[in-house]
Amino acid sequence: MDLMNLKDISPDQVIFWQWGPINVNATLVFTWIVMGLMVGGAWLVTRRIRPDTRMSRWQNLLEVVVDGMRRQIRDISQEDKPSYLYVVGTLFLFILVSNLLTVFPGWVAPTASLSTTAALAICAFVAVPVYGILDRGFLGYLRQYIRPTIFMLPFNVMGELSRTLALAVRLFGNIMSGMKIVAILLAIAPFIFPVLMHALGLLTGVIQAYIFAVLAMVYIASATRVQKAREQKEEQPNSGEENHNG
Amino acid sequence: MLMDWFTVVAQIVNFLILVALLKYFLYDRIIQAMDDRESRIQGRLDEAQKKSNQAEEAAESYREKQRKLESERQEIMDQAKQEAEKERKELARKAREEGENLRVRWRESVQKEKERFLRDLKQMAAKEVYGITRQALKDLADSDIEEQVAETFLSRMKSMPSEEKDQMGKAIRNNENRVRIASGFELASGTRQKITRAVRDELSKKAEVTYETDTDLIMGLEVKGHGEKLAWSAENYLEDLEHKAQNMLERQAAQAEGSEVQGS
Question: In this prediction, does ipTM exceed 0.90?
Fold first, then answer.
């Protein structure tokens, strides 16, 4: 905790360099470190990638991770679009790596900054209509806001905004609080107890990464497949009404 | 203020860059490798399936060949059996034939034996009869029996039907009137004159009669012209004897054969 004071809620407040509104703060620096680690690791592993059965352990690990994410996405969206994997998988991996690295002392998770989580939530927020429009067309996507009646329009819009806010704040709150708790506990009881909280923090970090990615996927899926399914149901009036909206 | 808007924008940019980098360095490569491996394994499995199919086909063809061989073997065996059966029948037939031939040959040899025996018997009997007769005639009256033979011959010549006489005469004339009289014994001159006269009277007036002795005749007389013959001799009796002896032998042979057939 050399870098951040206990009073600093966000790593944004640790500014290394500033020129007008442009600044280089701890969030950006640690984000770049995470990005460098991920891209460098991926490059190192996939540099000598082998398509046969005799592969390296790291390649095997990455294959398990990528295939697991792909399977999760397929389970949720019932589709096998590689573009979902690019966005949602990167969300998951970025948050996961950022959170797991808190095990190293002095590490400042970029996800502990509301700016980062907000940025990620905005990406998810933008991805939902992008995929929806790509999948069903502009009008087709907009029509879902007046379902089941036009009076639902404000509520749908509010839901859209509030869940984005929830995404951002949930992740920020969890990671930031985890870090603060560890810092406070270190100040009170330097031995043993912070380790437990640290372990709990790792678990929380993994779960939060999973939740964030899955929710993003669910929102995207709800904008595409589930809407389509509902339209198909409405065309068949005999079938019972079901609300799939996540 | 917890949120720094510049940082938010920078993080969005960072995130998009990360997406692009990971797409290139991680997802595409890994997925490509996995797909390649899958297709390779699938290819190997297909190959294995193909080879297995080929092996199955080969095995099937071998089984088919084996079945064919088996059936051919069976066929050959059957054929061999049939041929053996045929050969056996042929051999049996040949053996039977050979046996038959042997029997025929045996019968022929028996027949020959019989004939030889009969011939010998005939000759022996004739000799014996001649000997006995001669002996008896010698013992009784030497010339009388020869005289009697000549008499019998002459009476026979005289009692001949006229057409036979003509035929005989014609034959003598064709033979330049030469008549040969053969006898089994030496004729006395009186008997010769008697015969000559009788020949001239009965057969041909200009006949020149010559006499000769022929022991084959045993006992008797024979007039020979050109292919014609008039004869009386003990041959008649001998033939009768021969006939009787032959009958007896045949009966014996038939009995022997009957017992042989029963025995086999």
Answer: no
